[in-house]
Write a structure and sequence with these properties.
Chain lengths: ~425, ~210
């Protein structure tokens, strides 16, 4: 028997799964062949190391949580009835795909509907109203439409509106020639709404606006436009349909829509659609006792917060971090000792940063996986792969990024509080 | 009163949660242990073990008794493990729990009477062994966990995986060899020190 054949038998030999004659041959061989003996010993050790791992018991809360969960489920006899195709589809591996498909159909449907209604198919009272007026006085219609939707848009994503303003609205010729563009600036960012404006009131097309408006006012079939709206670059049309704007915009906004939304199909612990806001409270507190340090430290501590920095000279702020759910309670407590004034709440949107960092991390993880595979392949072929150095550098970066992400993720839970004591 | 599994299954199907609770208590250690070693951390193990029991509960009425309840349970657990990884690969998203769980506090500590140094060293070896397991393909990891950790026989594993004995035999062999190679790469595990940290067991009987 060759060494190779012996090696094939070693695993079964360890488990006593060989018949006696095979076992005898293996024993005989490893007694005389140092290489195979080494192979055997390493294999044996590998097995023993795994067998030597301690058993891990479930944490104490596991059982109760499971019981709680089970209680919320229908009895198994009932669930068994739901073995039809629909149930399987809904519960099975197609769940994510179906959900994604549903979202796409909804978007396409809603978009088509919206365009339709502008061409006369009337399904929504608001639209109906607009279209009616459209027939009488097109300028009026634009004005009305614009006063509703940009507000809705703005309330959902203030930051984006600001971007839009810089990019599109700060065009004086537009503003002069079309009353529509005097409305709240959110409109400007929504190129597609330009199509609407141009369509319903061709006269308002600004002479200086060049390509953008021209292309938008060009006659395009409704289906065509609906398709366009599916493209990642296009913002959802927010022309004069407030409800659609509200539901569609926030989903599409954070980061770049296309690629990521595709991945967000699965449910569970993804954070694809979550907005991460870091809240910051700035207040002035008057009439606190002479030396407020102890009071502030103790109160912050009482509500699970920490003091990050304290003022070194007058006019500086106390900076602390308080768990989001406790902030109001914290201020209530402070109110007992002094007067809280000028409360200003600011939120910084970390979603885009978080998205970028996470994408970068995923990129690195993909690279890591690839390197590990490469290394595995090389190892299987008995060669050195030479990726070890890159791999270890990569893994270091991964660790760092994970910490950064963890910090960002904690941001919504811990509110920054700046207190000026006067 | 110790009722057989199958009896408890019948009662559970009728909506007797206490009966199912007994089944859970009987198997939660095994399922959780498998999930923990498969995922490598507590947060994921908790999710996976919970998911497994929920699947079992919901599928109880479909348990026909063709195999033992334990075999059927492991089959569902194995599928849950695979599905979980597939889901992750699709999602490729980083969860916080994973990050939190990378903390050393979550590495189980040997409970025997060893000096702190020995405990620390043992903990380190175990961590490295777990790392090696994590690097294996899911099929290799799964079959090794069933064989080495759960102590299942080849026949039992064949029942769970619904494949032939020959397939089990060759897959275990390949999985062990892959593990051995991972351990060689780690360097210390298969040296003399590493060996001392293994159980030794039958090996010590060899010259």
């Amino acid at each position: 028997m060759q060494c190779h054949d012996i090696c094939e038998l070693l695993s079964a030999y360890i488990d006593g799964m060989l018949d006696s004659s095979q076992a005898a041959r293996v024993e005989e061989h490893i007694a005389s062949c140092a290489v195979c003996k080494m192979e055997y010993e390493d294999l044996r050790t590998a097995v023993d190391l795994v067998r030597g791992l301690p058993e891990v018991a479930p944490p104490p809360e596991f059982h109760d949580r499971l019981q709680q969960k089970l209680r919320s489920l229908p009895a198994p006899a009932d669930t068994n009835l739901k073995t039809g195709l629909l149930y399987k589809l809904a519960r099975g591996k197609w769940c994510g795909t179906l959900a994604a498909a549903a979202v796409i159909f909804l978007t396409v449907g809603v978009t088509a509907l919206w365009y339709n209604s502008n061409n006369g198919a009337i399904l929504d009272p608001v639209l109906q109203n607009n279209v009616e007026k459209n027939n009488q006085n097109s300028a009026d219609t634009i004005d009305k439409g614009n006063t509703v939707s940009p507000n809705a848009y703005k309330s959902m994503d203030g930051k984006k509106v600001a971007d839009g303003q810089q990019e599109y609205v700060a065009n004086p010729s537009l503003e002069e020639s079309s009353p529509a563009y005097n409305a709240p600036p959110g409109m400007g960012g929504l190129e597609k709404s330009g199509a609407l404006v141009a369509q319903s009131a061709p006269g308002t097309t600004a002479p200086g606006d060049g390509e953008q408006v021209r292309s938008l006012s060009a006659p395009v079939g409704a289906a065509d436009r609906a398709t366009k709206n599916q493209s990642p670059e296009s913002k959802h049309p927010a022309g004069d349909e407030p409800q659609l704007t509200v539901s569609a915009v926030p989903r599409a906004e954070p980061g770049d829509p296309g690629a990521k939304d595709g991945r967000a199909g699965g449910s569970g612990r993804t954070m694809e659609d979550e907005t991460i806001l870091a809240m910051e409270y700035t207040v002035t507190v008057k009439g606190l006792p002479e030396n407020p340090e102890q009071l502030l430290t103790e109160t912050a501590g009482k509500y699970g917060g920490v003091i990050e920095s304290k003022p070194v000279e007058p006019g500086q702020y106390w900076s602390m971090r308080i768990p989001a759910g406790q902030v109001e309670l914290f201020f209530d407590e402070i109110e007992k000792y002094g007067k809280v004034e000028d409360k200003c709440i600011q939120s910084n949107d970390l979603t885009a940063d978080f998205g970028r960092t996470r994408d970068k991390l995923n990129e690195l993880l993909a690279r890591e996986e690839k390197l590990l595979q490469e290394r595995g392949v090389a190892e299987d072929a008995g060669q050195k792969s030479g990726v070890d150095k890159e791999l270890s550098e990569l893994q270091e970066q991964i660790t760092t990024l994970r910490h950064v992400l963890a910090g960002m993720q904690q941001a919504p839970n811990m509110v920054t509080v700046q207190i000026m004591v006067q | 009163m110790h009722l057989p599994d199958e009896e408890l299954v019948q009662q559970s199907i009728k909506g007797d949660l206490d009966a199912f609770d007994q089944l859970v208590r009987r198997y939660e250690g095994k399922v959780y242990g498998l999930a923990y070693r498969f995922m490598g951390n507590h947060a994921d193990a908790s999710d996976l073990a919970q998911e497994t029991f929920i699947r079992i509960y919901q599928a109880l009425a479909r348990f026909r008794g063709d195999s033992s309840f334990a075999t059927w349970l492991y089959r569902i657990a194995a599928n849950a493990c695979r599905d979980e990884l597939r889901k992750r690969r699709r999602r490729r998203s980083v969860s916080m729990e994973e990050m939190m769980d990378a903390s050393p506090a979550n590495v189980p500590v040997a409970g025997d009477d060893y000096s702190p140094e020995e405990v620390a060293q043992r903990g380190e070896v175990q961590r490295q062994v777990q790392d090696c397991l994590n690097e294996l393909s899911e099929d290799h990891r799964l079959i090794l966990l069933m064989r080495e950790m759960q102590g299942m026989s080849y026949e039992e594993i064949a029942g769970v995986l619904e494949c032939s004995l020959g397939t089990v035999k060759s897959r275990i062999s390949r999985a062990r060899n892959a593990l051995k190679e991972k351990m060689r790469k780690k360097g210390e595990l298969l040296t003399r020190d590493g060996r001392l940290n293994g159980k030794g067991g039958k090996r010590s009987a060899m010259p």
